[in-house]
Structures are given as C-alpha cells and as structure tokens.
Amino acid sequence: MELKTNAALIIIDQQKGILHPKLGRRNNPQAEERIVALLAHWRLTGRPVIHVQHLSHSPESVFWPQQSGVEFQERFLPSVGERLIQKRVPDAFCATGLEAGLREAGIEQLIIVGVATNNSVESTARTAGNLVFNAWVVEDACFTFDKADFFGHPHSAEEVHAMSLGNLHGEYATVVSTAQILTAG
C-alpha cells in the first residue's frame, strides 16, 4: 500500500450539527479521534487537505445554514492553505468544482473520512471511483447512525456502516484502517 506525497485527505461534514442527539445512535465513537490523527499527519507531511461542508436545503436539517450546526467543529476548522468545498447534496463532487481542482493539482489519490458512511461518504467515494480516482475510505474514521431499511426493518449503525463499506470496497474504493494509512506514509 503506497500513500502518495500529494494524496488528498477529504474530511466530509465534520460540522457541529452531526453531534446532535436527534440523529440517533451511532457507531465508531473514536472516529473523530482518528480523523484528528490523520489530519495532524497530513499537516505534518504537507499533503493537501480538503474540508467538505454540507449546506442543507431543509430548515429541519442539522446542517441548515442559518444555525450553528452548519459550522465546523473546532477541531476540524480548515487551516490556511486547506481547501473548503461547500456542497448542497451528499456527493462532494456534484456542482462543487472538486474534480476540476483535483485534476488541476495532479491529485489522483483520495483518502476519504467523515460522515455519514452510507450517505455523503459513500456517495463521494462512488463518484471518485467512477471518475477513476484512487479512492481509499478509512473505515474506522467514518461513522453513521441506526437506520431502518426500505421495508421498515431496523438496522444498527454497525450494520449500516458495514453494508456501505461492502458496497464500496473493490468496486469504487479500497477500504482501509487509520493504522494502515498512518503506516503507509
């Protein structure tokens, strides 16, 4: 496993609203600590960091622009020189200029972390794979919430997370752990 010197760390939706109790029970309680570790490593090695911020269309959303939930959590505030992508849908590539910016910078390898595994992370990773980027999803630096399926059957956050990673691995992205990334370079 080789981590390129210009591999971009894409941190998805680490905003204050994602911590709201109304979202329900989640998995991977150490995900944020792992994202912080990856972010520190990226800053130390001078690799590109891209912060993705969701701006919801719905006033009921925890990411509605007119309230504090839309703001980044303090530990995930972009630093000088780090790119900010604002999106209106789950996919960070959709109508944002992300692809053009990556191509212009010659970046082919993307390390994707954040929330929610089965929503914005999966959507972004699928598009990255379809656009032939070398996408890696860091399974223990992502999380999601309990969710009922289409037929109303409840599934734990762990099950939803695992299925989403299963959807991605091998077809759209390579699923890895934080430890694998940190030891790769």
The helix fraction, in percent, is: 25-40%
What count of structural domains?
Answer: 1
Looking at the overall shape, the CATH architecture is: 3-Layer(aba) Sandwich
Strand segment count:
8
What can be said about the biggest beta sheet?
A: 6 strands, parallel
Order of helices and strands: EHEEHEHEEEHEH
CATH topology: Rossmann fold
Whole-number radius of gyration?
Answer: 15 Å
* Poorly predicted parts: none
Write out the CATH superfamily name.
Answer: Isochorismatase-like
Principal-axes shape call = globular
Question: How would you sum up this structure, described in words?
Answer:
This protein has helices at residues 31-45, 98-104, 117-130, 157-168, 178-184; strands at residues 8-12, 49-54, 83-87, 109-115, 134-143, 147-148, 154-155, 174-176. 38% of the residues are buried. The longest helix has 15 residues, at 31-45. It has 185 residues and is of the alpha/beta class. Helix content is 30%, strand content 22%. It is globular and about 45 Å long. A six-stranded parallel sheet has the order 3-2-1-4-5-8, sandwiched between helices. Helix 1 (31-45) links the parallel strand 1 (8-12) and strand 2 (49-54). The protein has a single domain (13-184), classed as Rossmann fold (3-Layer(aba) Sandwich), CATH 3.40.50.850. It has five helices and eight strands.
Give a brief rundown of this model.
The chain is built from 5 helices and 8 strands; from the N terminus they run βαββαβαβββαβα. It has helices spanning 31-45, 98-104, 117-130, 157-168, 178-184; strands at residues 8-12, 49-54, 83-87, 109-115, 134-143, 147-148, 154-155, 174-176.
